[in-house]
């Protein structure tokens, strides 16, 4: 042992000295195999009179969890990739190189399947052989099960399990493993993010902020195509629906390109609202439309409802108060070649409803003799949209030609209520001044935060809400005073 330059530290331990003194020399190698992970540079094959050294440096890992970075990285705030190196002892099988592929297929559930790590390594002593690395979690105590032994017997492979010192580097660890090792023990780990083109968008919690730059760099390292990581620093501005953000790592270029439902959008993520989690909802609403329908998008953003609707040959009126969103909406209309099918506006949502929407409905609804065209009004501003519903009260004057042609409203809202669907309906009814029982449906869009849901309530505007109807005035027959249907129902009949 001294001739091979091994440390005497292990040999001097009472446990090893006592065991060795009562054991034959060949059996000493069995003991060495048990301690191979604790002797620097030692690789031991459990076979009589045979062992060889490997150049890796193996650490004392008695208390280290397999596939976890070195514990010394705990508390790191500036990323040092070299500090993540460590070595673990894993089980291997020695096989002839010509049957390696057959063995990998036969033991596919037992062979190491960790991304970035080789499953087959060379045998330094025998160029005709290879070592196949097994999953240490599947081979407890380096002992093969009966099914594995049966496979090896059929392939004429000796069922001897050896130990191999496998070096792990920063590149071999997953994002979550790295962050769990760095952040204080027991604290939440952030490895998830929203991807917007080349940008990763995080919502870090307060306890994660000291590590924010390291977290950002890890996300860039582990996610090809991500070149910029940002963290939201305040809540969404309810006026323009954007938020302040800090660049944590990478380039500061926040103009990006995204693809959603086969449509390309370009945007400045720091100045407009974009949420990739709403892709399914955008598609759901557009699927309700048919060619020739009319869509009024009150809070259009950069066009995720408007542009696919125009692609579907609908007539679209799209509005957004944010000048940046309006400009990117125009840009994306041209980019997707639908600028001749979308009328874009840069107005307050209320003014848009009272102006272009009312004008278009006043012109088109009286012309509907047969139900050919449907009108849809999308109001995707969940923080405030319900407050805009009162605009529909007596928006039009006259009588509807057909109640089946009345516009469908799709209004979004947040709710923290125990019964969010009931909460949304009641708030919508309060704004409209009428009951929606049996006349609406609610759809859960997504969970925004613990106990906070985003929902969409859809309903056809009731005629008695939308229309202000002319009515006779018995006291003044010539009068052109207008009254509501509610006034008519409450008028007393002379005795």
From TrEMBL:
Protein name: TRM5 methyltransferase
Catalytic activity: guanosine(37) in tRNA + S-adenosyl-L-methionine = N(1)-methylguanosine(37) in tRNA + S-adenosyl-L-homocysteine + H(+)
Gene Ontology biological process terms, A to Z: mitochondrial tRNA methylation; tRNA N1-guanine methylation
Keywords: Cytoplasm, Methyltransferase, Mitochondrion, Nucleus, S-adenosyl-L-methionine, Transferase, tRNA processing
MF GO annotations: tRNA (guanine(37)-N1)-methyltransferase activity
Residues annotated as domain SAM-dependent methyltransferase TRM5/TYW2-type: 193-463
Membrane-spanning segments: none
UniProt-listed SUPFAM superfamilies: S-adenosyl-L-methionine-dependent methyltransferases
Region (Disordered) residue spans: 473-495
Recorded superkingdom: Eukaryota
A cellular-component GO term for this protein: mitochondrial matrix
Alphabetical list of Pfam families matching this protein: TRM5-TYW2_MTfase (PF02475), TYW2_N_2 (PF25133)
Protein source organism: Nyctibius grandis
Function field: Involved in mitochondrial tRNA methylation. Specifically methylates the N1 position of guanosine-37 in various tRNAs. Methylation is not dependent on the nature of the nucleoside 5' of the target nucleoside. This is the first step in the biosynthesis of wybutosine (yW), a modified base adjacent to the anticodon of tRNAs and required for accurate decoding.
């Amino acid at each position: 042992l001294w001739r091979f330059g091994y440390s005497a530290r292990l040999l001097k331990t009472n446990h090893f000295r006592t065991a060795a003194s009562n054991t034959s020399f060949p059996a000493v190698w069995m003991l060495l195999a048990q301690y191979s992970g604790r002797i620097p540079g030692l690789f031991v094959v459990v076979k009589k009179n045979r062992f060889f050294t490997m150049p890796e440096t193996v650490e004392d890992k008695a208390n280290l969890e397999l596939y976890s970075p070195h514990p010394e990285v705990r508390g790191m705030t500036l990323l040092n990739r070299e500090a993540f190196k460590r070595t673990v002892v894993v089980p291997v099988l020695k096989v002839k190189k010509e049957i390696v592929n057959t063995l990998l297929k036969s033991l596919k559930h037992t062979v190491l399947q960790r991304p970035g790590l080789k499953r087959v390594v060379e045998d330094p002593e025998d160029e005709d052989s290879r070592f196949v690395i097994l999953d240490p979690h599947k081979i407890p105590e380096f002992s093969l099960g009966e099914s594995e032994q049966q496979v090896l017997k059929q392939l004429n492979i000796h069922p001897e399990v050896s130990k191999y010192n496998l070096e792990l580097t920063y590149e071999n660890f997953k994002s979550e493993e790295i962050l769990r090792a760095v952040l204080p023990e027991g604290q939440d780990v952030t490895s998830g993010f929203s991807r917007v083109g080349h940008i990763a968008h995080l919502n870090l919690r307060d306890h994660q902020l000291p590590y924010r730059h390291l977290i950002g760099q890890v996300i860039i390292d582990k996610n090809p195509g991500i070149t910029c990581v940002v963290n939201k620093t305040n809540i969404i501005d309810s006026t323009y629906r954007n938020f302040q953000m800090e660049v944590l790592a990478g380039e500061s270029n926040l103009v990006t390109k995204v693809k959603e439902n086969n449509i390309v959008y370009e945007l400045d993520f720091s100045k407009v609202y974009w949420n990739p989690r709403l892709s399914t909802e955008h598609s759901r609403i557009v699927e309700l439309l048919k060619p020739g329908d009319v869509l009024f998008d009150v809070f259009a953003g950069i066009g995720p409802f408007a542009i696919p609707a125009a692609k579907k040959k609908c007539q679209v009126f799209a509005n957004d108060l944010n000048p940046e969103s309006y400009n990117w909406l125009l840009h994306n209309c041209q980019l997707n070649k639908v600028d001749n099918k979308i009328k874009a506006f840069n107005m307050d949502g209320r003014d848009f409803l009272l102006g272009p929407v009312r004008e278009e409905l006043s012109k088109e609804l009286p012309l509907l003799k047969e139900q050919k065209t449907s009108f849809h009004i999308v109001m995707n501003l969940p923080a405030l949209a319900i407050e805009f519903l009162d605009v529909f009260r007596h928006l039009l004057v006259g009588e509807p030609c057909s109640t089946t042609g009345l516009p469908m409203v799709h209004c979004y809202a947040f709710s923290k209520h125990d019964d969010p669907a009931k909460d949304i309906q009641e708030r919508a009814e309060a704004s409209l001044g009428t009951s929606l029982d049996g006349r609406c449906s609610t759809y859960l869009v997504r969970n925004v935060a613990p106990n906070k849901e985003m929902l969409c309530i859809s309903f056809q505007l009731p005629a008695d809400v939308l229309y202000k109807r002319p009515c006779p005035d018995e006291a003044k027959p010539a009068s052109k005073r207008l009254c509501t249907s509610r006034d008519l129902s409450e008028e007393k009949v002379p005795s």
